[in-house]
Design goal:
Rossmann fold; Four Helix Bundle (Hemerythrin (Met), subunit A); elongated; 2 domains
């Protein structure tokens, strides 16, 4: 994705919850951004399982006793088991070991080092999703495996864009499942967004081509494209993504302008493999991580960011519209290292 002049960009992270300029949009109140404290409370609660797992392990290992190699090895195991990744775990251990031998150390000291390292890894990838206003429309292709939350994420993004007064078109590119088509239609009604859909079994690439044509004719600001959930091991479905990209470029050589991979945090280490394959086959440009409230494996976002360095645009900690928020490295680090 090419660099774009800031004068033509709208930063989703800065604009979420802004007043609609379109007047009377039905989603404005629903999409209102919660207070910072309200969001932090939900984030801490959502990451509670992850932080409890980490904090419990740290507290059990560290008292005011002297630091030892055995204790550091046990801590490294705790960090790795929490899916933070080997490299991150090793850096935390290295930081703790410097000048610490024969000195007392407390659990709070360890949590402070953990918070600092997590924030250091995540700060470069915490990037707002940018909508280039020179594109009419800006095309966002949303990909991921079955059950990751793609369609719901699209609905929540549509709500945010509509609350900003943008005209949004949704493309029901998951033509394999009637439920996915119906779900997207419901989101279209909720957000007053047009939905382009066809019968189950229709050609997904052809539908997406028609959706882009309609969005252009209507002067839409954003086209959000749903796709069929696919395992990264299914060659035929991965090929279909390539076909979707090719037909989009017939109408707009620069499209898609963003390819968002939606990851389910509960899958843990499998999410790493998903990023590997989808990045190679679908040209993923950014990530959204969902279901952080349902797992003790939220540390996987740190491991993914440390390895791939892809922008993390948003995270989700619940089912409500305002439970998907722009990603903030400091907030995440604070929540995951909470005592």
């Amino acid at each position: 994705m090419s660099e774009r002049g800031t004068k033509n960009q709208t930063m989703l992270g800065q604009q979420w919850g802004s007043k609609s300029t379109g007047g009377g949009d039905p989603v404005t109140q629903d999409a209102a951004q919660p207070t910072k404290q309200g969001w932090m409370d939900r984030l801490k609660a959502g990451l509670g399982k992850t932080s409890t797992r980490l904090s419990g392990g740290i507290t059990g290992l560290f008292t005011k006793s002297k630091l030892s190699l055995d204790t550091l090895e046990d801590l490294e195991d705790v960090l790795i088991e929490s899916d933070l990744g080997l490299d991150t775990a090793e850096r935390i251990i290295e930081t703790l070991s410097k000048g610490r031998y024969e000195k007392g150390i407390q659990a709070d000291d360890v949590r402070a080092v953990l918070k600092a390292e997590v924030e250091r890894v995540l700060a470069p990838v915490a990037q707002a999703l940018r909508i280039d206003e020179s594109h009419k429309p800006h095309v966002v292709l949303v990909v991921g495996v079955n059950g990751s939350g793609k369609t719901t994420t699209i609905g929540k993004l549509a709500a945010r864009f509509r609350s900003e007064g943008k005209k949004v078109v949704l493309a029901a590119g998951d033509t394999f499942r009637a439920a996915a088509i119906d779900q997207l239609k419901i989101w279209g009604e909720r957000t007053a967004s047009d939905v382009v859909a066809r019968d189950v079994g229709s050609d997904a690439a052809g539908l997406v081509y028609d959706a882009l044509g309609q969005a252009r004719d209507e002067g839409a600001d954003v086209l959000l494209v749903d796709t069929a959930g696919r395992l990264q091991t299914k060659e035929g479905l991965m090929e279909e993504l390539g076909k979707v990209n090719r037909v989009l470029r017939k109408l707009d050589p620069t499209a898609p302008h963003d390819v968002l991979l939606v990851l389910d945090a509960t899958t843990g280490q499998n999410a790493l493999a998903q990023v590997d394959v989808f990045r190679e086959r679908a040209g993923v440009t950014g990530l959204v991580m969902t279901k952080l409230d349902g797992t003790a494996r939220g540390g996987i976002l740190v491991a993914i960011s440390d390895k791939h360095g892809l922008p993390v645009h948003a995270i989700g900690v619940g089912e409500g519209i305002d439970d998907l928020q722009p990603f903030d490295a400091g907030e995440f680090a604070q929540a995951i290292a909470a005592g």
